[in-house]
Amino acid sequence: MRRPGAERVRPRNATGETGAGAAASLGVRARCEHRSCRNGFIISAPASPAPAHTVAYGDYGLVVVSNRLPVDFVVDADGNEGWRSSPGGLVTALEPVMREADGAWVGWAGVADREFEPFENDGISIVPVPLSNEELERYYEGFSNDTLWPLYHDVIAPPSYHREWWESYVIVNRRFAAAAAMVAARGATVWVHDYQLQLVPAMLRGLRPDLVIGFFNHIPFPPYGIYSQLPWRKQIIEGLLGADVIGFQRVADAGNFTRAVRRLFGYTTRHTVVEVPTQNGELRRVVATNFPISIDVAGFEEMAGRPEIQARAREIRAGLGNPETVMLGVDRLDYTKGIAHRLKAYGELLAQGRLDIENTVLVQVASPSRERVATYMTLRDEIELQVGRLNGDHSSISHTAIAYLHQAYPREEMVALYLAADVMLVTALRDGMNLVAKEYVACRVNNDGVLVLSEFAGASDELKQALLINPHDIEGLKDAIETAVRMPAKQRRKRMKTLRKRLRQNSVSDWAKAFLDDLTGRAAVEPGVPDTLITKLREVAASERLLVALDFDGTLAPHVDRPEDARALESARTAVMRLVALPETRVAFVSGRALVSLEQVAEPPESVLLTGSHGIEMKLDQPEISLNLLSEEIAQLASLAEILDGIASKAEGAWVERKPAGFALHTRLVPAPTGLALQRTARASVQGILPSLSVLEGKNVLEFSVRSGNKGDALQQLRAYTQATSVFYAGDDVTDEHAFAVQGAGDLSLKIGQGFTVAGNRVRGPEELAEVLALLADFRAAQAGALDRARS
Ligand SMILES: O=P(O)(O)OC[C@H]1O[C@H](O[C@H]2O[C@H](CO)[C@@H](O)[C@H](O)[C@H]2O)[C@H](O)[C@@H](O)[C@@H]1O
Ligand SMILES: O=c1ccn([C@@H]2O[C@H](COP(=O)(O)OP(=O)(O)O)[C@@H](O)[C@H]2O)c(=O)[nH]1
User: Fold this and answer.
1) Is the ipTM of this complex over 0.90?
2) Domains defined along the chain, listed by start
């Protein structure tokens, strides 16, 4: 999803500065976008940084931002430098999504005091963000992993609160926001991940109001009683509310978040929607809901079916002495994972003779994690002491009770371990999801094996056929382990089949799609006119002077392949005719088309006000179109025509539309990748020769104009001209967002179809719009009738 941008930028020398300062220090050519700031295209969350007045655009239509990149920079014992897969479930989940998406991944390279150029890794564009050693200590090990991590995991360990850690967290979040702002194309989708970067959404919105911003929290969000301990509890929530959609693993997490918003800010929340008041007195709607993360199920199944991995699984079992039961635990060495509880239960089962050392073994992978954080150092000592004691107490010369592995294994080896294990033990005290549980289920392609799963791991919401346990209840845990070991084959298969079926319903691609569809508004729109919209139509119909302003293509008229064939639906036309006949009611068509072309296809009734070429042309109750080009602009038009004609001639189906103040390159009829490539070439060529031209991106169309304008400006002019007390505006394209953005209280904005929007209402297509216009005409006529009766 790489999109053509003003300039390919590299976030080198990131200093944490924002806006113009950051752009300048990064050596990026900056462009002024005062209009979008003035219009409040999307307003920042309260107390977020002021919108920047200088914006540079990058290349990428999708940008993922997370603390960890999929690869860490490493130096081996011989001083050889290289990259290796980084730890944790976030990377496991996002890697396959990003390989499909052709987006950019902004993150830290896992090493302090080093800067790296952006690079490609395994089909993913990597944009490294540097951290100093002090920031590593304060932002990552300190605030992220010794304040937020324990606080968000039910204070299993006591969180530490230090002001200098918080200051570092703010600085680093600002740097990540600046880096994302530099690589995101205009209007791009930026998906920020996890607790390390909770301030990024609002910071990014301040820098780039044009972006669609999502946030996903991979770890739990704590109940208010715990969250409220945090000295910076308000700032964190303000940071998150900069996003359009905030995703959580579990329903309970989303509920905890919205409760904290209500308690701390008093904002209204309706189901999953938080209404955030903006600086101009309007409401921004932020969605906070659950999207349980998953794994690449088909990918794990495929690996589990590979003969060499199955052979490795047999080798592992043989190496363990081919016991009857192999039990497995796989965790980062983290106090949230409940490793100590698991070992205690296992030790007691051995001590009581309920498990026999001759035919049982526990393989515990405890991969190194956060090794410089004191709590983790202590944990390692405790676990290794416990393992040592258990082995000392229970192992025999030929059989070891626990095979303890303080190592990180590649994915193939993980799959072999899952295949080798009869029982999987996931005993987390609190865990956002726990992908290990899902990976085990995916790999059990023979439908055998038992999963013992903590109810405090997010995975337990979906994997209900596992043996669900409370890890604090050691007796219950012991019973579950024994049940798992002795479970009859038939019951094992039945449970595992159900688990696998459930898992396949939500693969990681489904998770990403669900989140991004919600974020970008691509989710299906229901047919019909919603009741809430009908209520608002009644309200707007009662206004003293009403302006009904309508986009044409895709709104009054369904989209067609040839622009000259577009015609308004008959039902829409009828409704427009009724509206223009009503008192104190003006109708306007607001189109991106040249006015001459709009008049040809729309055949507007005489009193309809017209604006074309995105507001550059106007025809307001007079026969002439107002637009006078300077001689310099006419010369620019000639060069532009030459460039775009040359580009369009390279692909069948692409064409150039002539407009009074510019040209539009249409790519609707060429395959999407070719269309994108043509647009990218056009942008670069025009940029090189005519850098001052304004560029507007629509659905499969790229427009260049020698004079700038947009539908927001056009709507403001129409409002002033008609002195309307309320404005109804409907449109389907991204260019209509400028118009929605200038609407205020007492107006009604209506998005037609899918796609991200700032409009307050949405219907499915032109048929629904025609219904809406007919209803508006009914309500307005009834209002006029009532007034007449009152007067007489
Ligand atoms: O980056 P680290 O500090 O080394 O930690 C590794 C990752 O751990 C956490 O993973 C979480 O995400 C998983 C996928 O959503 C989820 O299954 C698990 O329950 C979470 O704990 C952390 O959230 C990541 O940011 C870290 O990269
Ligand atoms: O030696 C190891 C240990 C773990 N993992 C992977 O690390 C991830 C752990 O994710 P999970 O959600 O279970 O926990 P997290 O570590 O993110 O808290 C899973 O994909 C594991 O397969 C791995 O690749 N090698």
Assistant:
1) yes
2) 19-290 (3.40.50.2000), 297-505 (3.40.50.2000), 531-628+709-789 (3.40.50.1000), 631-705 (3.30.70)
